[in-house]
Every structure is written in C-alpha cells, then in structure tokens.
Amino acid sequence: MKHVIIGGVAGGATAAARIRRADEFAEIILLEKSRYISYANCGLPYYIGGIITERDDLFLQTPKSFGKRYNVSVRVENEAISIDTSAKTVQVRCVDGSVYTENYDKLLISPGALPVRPPLKGIDSEGIFVLRNVENTDNIKNYIASHSVESAVVVGAGFIGLEMAENLHNAGAEISIVEMINQVMAPVDFSIASHLHQHLIQKGIKLYLEHTVERFEKQDNRIVVFFSSGESIATDMVILSIGVRPDTALAKAAGLQTGERGGIWVNEYMETSAKDVYAVGDAIEFPHPLTGKSWLNYLANPANRQGRIVADNMVFGNKIKYEGAIGTAIAKVFDMTVATTGLAAKQLEQAGIEFFSSTTHSSSHAGYYPNAQPLTIKLTFDPESGKLFGGQCVGYEGVDKRIDQIALLIKNGGTVYDLIKLEHAYAPPFSSAKDPVAIAGYTASNIISGAMPIVTWRQILSAEKEKIFLLDVRTKEENDFGAINNSVNIPLDQLRSRINEIPKDKEIFVYCAVGLRGYLALKILTAHGFKNVKNLSGGYKTYSTAIAHTDDNQQF
Asked: Could you tell me the sign of the dihedral formed by the alpha carbons of 294, 296, 302, 307, in that order?
C-alpha cells in the first residue's frame, strides 16, 4: 500500500507516524512545500519574545530524523500542485522548478490555513508581518535584530495577536492592539474578555477596540497605521493577526467538494468526496457536535487527533468515526489565563439556541492558604435539562484544569449536575473543599430549579430605573469604594431588621461582590413575601468589570 501525504505539520506528520506503526511495510511519502515539518507552531510567539531561547527547540523532528525513525520518504520543498483523483496521481514541483508525478493508493491532504491579508493600501510595506510558520518567525526575528523596534502595532486581538503583544512587550516594545470588534479574544463573551481588557491596560498596552484599519503608509522609516475614523498611530513594526482561512486551492482544483464555510468537506471517516482521498486539520470543515452545523476549527489538538483517526482508516478501511471538536482553547495573556470550550452565549444567540448562563467568582485554591488567586467561570447550559453547552474561565492560576474538566463533560453530553458530582483532588494549595467547578455547577442548578432567579449586568443597564429597586447587600465600606448607580446599600447582616425599607411594588435586583451574599439576601426576601427578586449573576465584580471604560483612544 502506498500512502502519499500532503502537508507535514500537525495532522500530516501525526498520520505518517501512525500509518507506520500500523503497517511496517507500507510505502509512505510526505510532501511539504516548506523546509520544515513537525514544528511547534504554537510556540512561535514565545521564541520571538525570547521565552523560548533556542530556535531548534521549536522542532519536534527534523525531516531527516523523522524519515529515519518512521521509514518515511520526507520531501521538503516539494509542493503538490495538482491532484488527479481518477488517475490517483499527484503532480509535485521541486524547489528548482522541476515537476514530477507521484501515484498513490491512499492520499491525505493536510494543507492547513493561510493568514488573512486584506487588500489594504501599503500592506506589503517593509515592517508589516504575519505569523503562521517558521519562515514568518525568522523574518520577524531578523527585523527586530536589525531595526530599532521601540513600538509595535498588533492588528487583531485573537490568540496569536495577544500572544504576540505580550512577547513583543517582553522584548521591550510599546504595544498598541487594534481590534475591529468591541473586545479582545472573540471566542469568549464580552464579560470574560473584560477581565483581559483591564489586565492589558494595567500592563501598559494601548487598546484600540472598535477601530478598523484603512491603510498603511511609510513615513520617515516608520509605519503609520490609519483608521477609518481618521485617527492614526505611528509605529516601528506591525503584526497582522486578523485571522486565517482554510487553504483549499489544491482541493478545489482537484474537484473536491467544499462546504458552506469554505473548508474541505469530509465525512465522519475524514474522507473527502473523492474515494481514497482524505483530509485533516485547519483546511477541513466538520459538523459541530453541539449544533450539528459545519464549522472551521483552527486548533492543533483536533488536527492531531484527526491525523491518528485518518491513519487507521487509510490502513484498515473506514472503521473509526471522528466525533468532531467543540473548540477547547487556552491562552496566556501576560499574568492571566483565559480559556474556552463549547459554545459561548453569543454563539448560542446567533444559532438561535435557548440557553441559560451563570457566572461565578471563586479562588484558585483555599482562601486561607497563601497566594489564592481569583478565578471566574461562566457556563452556558440548557434551561430544562441542564446539558452543558459551553464554559469559559479566566484567572491567574488553575484555569487549565477547570476548563479541561468542563470540556470532557461537554464532549460526553454532560450536564451542570455532573459538575457537582465531579470528585476533585483537594488540598489547600490546589483547591477548596468546594472546587470552583462544583460551585459553578451548584449555581447553575439553582438557576434551573428557580431557587435563584438571576439578572445579568446587561439587563441592569437596560432596565427602567423607576420600575426596579437595586439593593446592595455588601458592607458600607465596600459600597464606598464603588456601587451601581441608584442602588440602596443595606448590608446583608442588617437586612432582616431593615426589611421595611424595601418596596414590595417593584422588581428587586440584589447584588453583592460576587453573588453569594446576594443569593442569601434573595432567600431572606422571598421568605418574607417578596415575589419578584433576582440576584445579579457574578455580582458587582462582573458588572463593574464589564462596564469599565478607558480613555478616548481606548474604547470598549
């Protein structure tokens, strides 16, 4: 059996290694148009910033070592330029321009994705870069080494954009981030991204949210970034992190079916519309397990899993089905960590799926043990069954293990009640007797049962003030440091003795710092006959973080 694989990063390299383990005597050819295979794409920003000091550490295997270990014919700087699915052949162009034809029994396409470069005036100027591969990385490193880069503009505030902002800041540059929507990190909800906004500003990063780049100009050895608003920034370097799109040119030219999102269509066995031709990685689209709708998922973990599955199907026939990915991702943003899995509230709204959400603020480990850090969890779930739709987490410590637990439950059809049943390893340095994940589950279950009706920060902002009574049950000292406009402060421990101060003819919105005292106040009020009482989800911490504003150039 002869297997030809196009693309030697992530899914392609994984598939080649797996095929060899499954069939010692198969012929395997790995074609890669660049000079590198099997490298740590996600580590590139950290090499630019000097966190990863040795360039060689980015490479999991060299073409030579990979070829020898797995007995694979690794052909770098060999670009597949056409596929004939009827004749089962691939035309390949070498670096010297010569072309040859390779036949196959099974073919795997793993071309990845291409960075988006909109046709803006001046976008090809010196000093403007994208970051997608090793060559891009070398170009950026060389530019920094040969130029005085005291400032940089990062256009796009996704995962790569924020990681580049941090690493260029670590390298000594003053950083401005430009993003056309009203938040950084688009996959998470605004209330979660707001924590990052505050942290980035604390680190000295200038945020230009809801700003659209119109053009670039070279002026006196600097690059001027012009916005559609008429504003501009002069800088020494620009990183474009606007997004990526699936690299489907080869597949389309071969007549392979593409999907509604523009990716290569594959079935549950990762096979394309052409027999014996498979595809994996960033270039494919596949139904989302929760919505059933096709989507594009640009993450390394699913690509590697797909590579393993497709290898077995190429060797043994179509026996293993791919279940799909829910989009579990994490990023380090200076001292904070943000992570997401499944569907955020805004995605559920766009899909027209009914949902409830909850926000809880806990500590990363027991509060009485030194250095406990704040940890915020937001869940989305079905209003009746409690089936988990998504989870988001932001904090300084312990974010990764919480999001992984939530992701595992979502992939297995779990509910908020399963979060409560999770048995956590507990010791004060690592968690609390009630882990933040369990607290999130308890809170969500109370919302579903009706034991704790909630109001969101957005609903408070849009409420008709004369029809509601805003009750702050924090201490006077907390209230003095900041409160929601028009709220009345009655500390929780005084509530029973001052209950006559609360009107019964208005809707009552209760809030405290993070939600717990608000819940206790709600139970007291309902027990005393108040009928329309709701607790602010996430408390004043969520509200104040979400509505925070910066100066005129840094708008939320």
From this structure: positive
